[in-house]
Design brief:
With 399 residues, the chain is an alpha/beta fold. The protein has 13 helices and 17 strands. Strands 4-12-11-10-7-5-6 form a seven-stranded mixed β-sheet, with helices on both faces. A four-stranded mixed β-sheet has the order 1-2-3-15. A four-stranded antiparallel β-sheet has the order 13-14-17-16, with helices on one face. A hairpin with a 2-residue loop joins strand 13 and strand 14. Helix 12 (340-349) packs across helix 13. The radius of gyration is 21 Å and the shape is globular.
């Protein structure tokens, strides 16, 4: 009989945490771990943030769920704030990143259908992308390891190499409805999309009557030092999927859109049972209370630059273990020479939690509230991890 009643689809560590305090996670026996994974870029304001806890408790004592058959004022307020801070004019709340992407995909297809072009349902995506785990979003991501064993790939998704403009142009045809990309590929290995390429994609969309979908599920809500990563450029999308950081640990997501695009999802075309419930909306508003405070995002930019510079020094000092530092703000990555999983394990032994990614990269994505002192401590622990991996390399060479 299995030791657990849970599905075996996760390769879990042997750690179990009792509570969290800011950037720290604490086990029942009192061991403290510096959380540089943030639950995979989710705990944007760290653990047990007092403002989030208060908002959740206050709302939990009043109303959790009523369905979208009725008005939800907390959702109206959160949607308005997101629109005021972005390109968007309309917001649809959901429960996760994959659901936000599903909404964007459906909206793009229906938009073209409403324009009398039902044949335009294909969406072009990029190699190395990750857009979720549903049947549609694994097809959108296009990675063989996620598609294998789940039947034929869902139709309507065409992948091209990242940053290959000629391949992108060649893929556009009478079947194309939209182009979708992440400003920084997170799961793909913290690979940034150059601004010039993003501008070229926007122009191709405009010239060909296509919609531009941005997946900012991992890059959004302050992670790069702007509210959303595309705001480092002058490019704006027609649709944007967000999740992770907007809930600060509470499961929620959203699809943001221009008014013209959002009109495609008329009553009856799409829905969600739990999306936008009062509990989620209270937490989302509390997250924005903090992230939109004067100076908060500028501070993330400053801390991100400091962290990246320190990580660059770490890479220089350990060339047999680490090759490169990538990313922007507090969405950073260490490309490894050794297997990334080995470095993640060594970091965990040193009391630091990080997240593996594609392209043999270790993601460093701490809470946005991390202090300079905590950044320095994180680098110390990563140094210990690098030294431990080096020691094993020496041992292996001596055998």
């Amino acid at each position: 009989m299995s030791a657990t009643a849970l599905f075996g689809n996760y390769a879990r560590s042997n750690l179990s945490f009792d509570h969290g305090e800011g950037v720290w996670l604490v086990t029942k026996d009192g061991r403290r771990f510096l959380d540089c994974g943030s639950g995979i870029a989710v705990n944007s304001l760290g653990h047990s943030h007092p403002h989030l806890v208060q908002a959740l408790q206050d709302q939990a004592s009043k109303l959790w769920h009523i369905s979208n058959l009725h008005q939800i004022p907390e959702g109206e307020r959160l949607a308005q704030r997101l629109c005021e801070a972005t390109f968007a004019e309309k917001v649809l709340f959901v429960n996760s990143g994959a659901e936000a992407m599903e909404a964007a995909i459906k909206c793009a297809r229906r938009y073209q259908y409403d324009k009398g072009q039902p044949e335009r349902f294909h969406i072009i995506t990029f190699e190395g992308a990750f857009h979720g785990r549903t049947i549609a979003t694994i097809a959108a991501g296009g990675q063989a390891k996620y598609l294998e064993g789940f039947g034929p790939k869902a139709p309507g998704f065409d992948q091209v190499p990242a940053n290959d403009l000629e391949a992108l142009k060649a893929a556009i045809g009478p079947q194309t409805a939209a182009i979708c990309l992440e400003p920084i590929q997170g799961e793909g290995g913290i690979r940034e999309i150059p601004t010039d390429f993003l501008r070229a994609v926007r122009k191709l969309c405009d010239d060909n009557g296509l919609l531009l979908i941005l997946d900012e599920i991992q890059t959004g809500v302050g992670r790069t030092g702007k509210l959303f990563a595309h705001q480092w450029t002058d490019v704006e999308p027609d649709l944007m999927a967000i999740a992770k950081g907007i809930g600060g640990g509470f499961p929620m997501g959203a699809c943001l859109a221009t008014a013209e695009t959002a009109a495609a999802l008329a009553p009856g075309t799409h829905g969600t049972t739990f999306g936008g419930n009062p509990l989620a909306m209270a937490v989302g508003n509390a997250v924005l209370d903090v992230v939109l405070e004067d100076g908060f995002l500028a501070d993330v930019q400053k801390k991100g630059l400091s962290f990246k510079q320190k990580l660059a020094g770490l890479v220089d000092g350990h060339p047999k273990v680490l090759d490169q530092v990538r990313g922007n703000g507090l969405m950073l990555g260490l490309k490894c020479v050794v297997p990334a999983g080995d470095f993640v394990g060594a970091a965990r032994e040193a009391g630091l939690l990080a997240v593996p990614a594609g392209d043999n990269v270790v993601r460093i994505m701490p809470p946005l509230t991390m202090t300079e002192d905590e950044i320095a401590l994180a680098v110390e622990r990563l140094e210990q991890a690098a030294e431990a991996v080096e020691a094993k390399l020496v041992e292996g060479a001596a055998e």
